[in-house]
Design brief:
The chain is α+β, with helices and mostly antiparallel strands. The chain has a single domain (4-229), classed as SOS response associated peptidase-like (hypothetical protein yedk fold, Alpha-Beta Complex). The chain is built from four helices and 13 strands. The protein has helices spanning 11-17, 92-97, 179-186, 192-201, and strands at residues 5-7, 37-40, 45-52, 55-62, 79-81, 99-104, 106-112, 120-127, 133-140, 154-161, 172-174, 176-177, 209-213. The strands form three sheets. Strands 5, 6, 9, 10, 11 and 12 form a six-stranded mixed beta sheet that branches. A five-stranded antiparallel beta sheet has the order 2-1-7-8-13, with no helix packed on it. The protein is globular, with a radius of gyration of 17 Å. The two termini are 19 Å apart. This is Abasic site processing protein.
Length: 237
């Protein structure tokens, strides 16, 4: 699962890793300042990289999606399981038209005490290399250069199963792609079947990540700043 993540670098730092070079083949411009978000919660806007009808864009899109026929019946989904997203009635349309990337620097999971579920310790999970990461995502977003979002715009983060030691924290994790695979995932020419093959077989392995305990302040969506990803020495679990 992914219910909170960090997205704090300058947009150019992410774009460079997926092969976007200057002069930028982008539409809509890029903010040269750091994004500076260390506590991105669901139902808020986050920077999303995607292809629009007039070129590649990086822009804020709401984290959460529901198809038109499901809107108002339940809260928007924030995650989609890689094992079923391509064929699920809920996601299959945007599997074809809305493959996108969430650039990120890590995500948070809460480890729960088996004896007392009320005791939870947050962990920050990031790449051991210190490089940016790219979450595979699906979304509905602006088309054809429109400036204003449409009703129903939003995205979900695709998740896969955890393994090895990461299972101790949570059994699901974001599907993280390399820069090369991230660019391929967004390619409008990639067929839905090829995209499914990429998603099922080319996510980064758990050995690429490291994780450590952080303070419980991350649990409050009003908290922000680099201190939220600082390692603590006295975790509850």
């Amino acid at each position: 699962m992914c219910g909170r993540f960090a997205q704090y670098r300058i947009a150019y730092e992410y774009l460079d890793k997926i092969g976007v070079q200057l002069p930028l083949p982008l539409r809509g411009g890029v903010n040269p300042e750091p994004i500076g978000r260390y506590n991105v919660p669901p139902r808020t806007n986050a920077q999303l990289i995607h292809w629009d009808l007039d070129g590649m864009r990086i822009e804020p899109v709401p984290w959460g999606y529901a198809p038109w026929w499901a809107q108002g019946k339940r809260p928007p989904a924030i995650n989609a399981r890689v094992e079923t997203a391509a064929t699920s009635k809920f996601f299959r349309d945007i599997w074809s038209t809305g493959r996108s990337i969430v650039p990120a620097d890590g995500w948070f999971e809460w480890k729960t005490d088996e004896q007392n579920p009320k005791i939870k310790q947050p962990y920050f999970i990031t790449l051991g290399s210190g490089e940016p990461m790219f979450f595979a995502a699906l979304g509905q977003f602006q088309r054809g250069g429109m400036l204003d979002p449409r009703d129903g715009d939003g995205f979900v983060i695709i998740t896969s199963s955890s393994d090895a030691g990461m299972l101790d924290i949570h059994d699901r994790r974001p599907l993280v792609l390399s820069g090369e695979c991230a660019a391929h995932w967004m390619d409008p020419e990639l067929s839905p079947a090829e995209a499914e093959e990429l998603a099922l077989g080319h996510g980064l392995g758990v050995e690429e990540f490291e994780w450590y305990p952080v303070g419980r302040e991350i649990g409050n969506v009003r908290n922000e700043g680099a201190a939220l990803i600082a390692r603590i020495d006295d975790p509850l679990l």
